[in-house]
Amino acid sequence: MSLKRSTVKELLASQDLDREVLVKGWVRSRRGNKYVQFIIVNDGSTIHTIQAVAAAENFPEETLKDVGNGAAVAIRGTLVASQGKGQAVEIQATEVIVLGAADAEAYPLQKKATSLEHLRDIAHLRPRTNTFGAVLRIRHALAFAVHQYFNDHGFYYVHTPIITGSDAEGAGQMFRVTTLSADKPPLAEDGSVDYTQDFFGKQTNLTVSGQLEGELAAMALGSIYTFGPTFRAENSNTARHLAEFWMIEPEVAFNELEENMDLAEDFLQSLVKYALANCADDLAFLNEQYDKELLARLHSVADNAFQRLTYTEAVEILKSAKQKFEFPVDWGTDLQSEHERYLVEKHFKKPVILTNYPKEIKAFYMKLDDDGRTVRAMDVLFPGIGEIIGGSQREEDYTKLTTRMAEMNVPAHDLDWYLDTRRFGTAPHAGFGLGFERLVLFVTGMSNIRDVIPFPRYPKNAAF
Ligand code: 4AD
Ligand code: MG
Question: Is the pTM of this model over 0.85?
Answer without folding.
Answer: yes
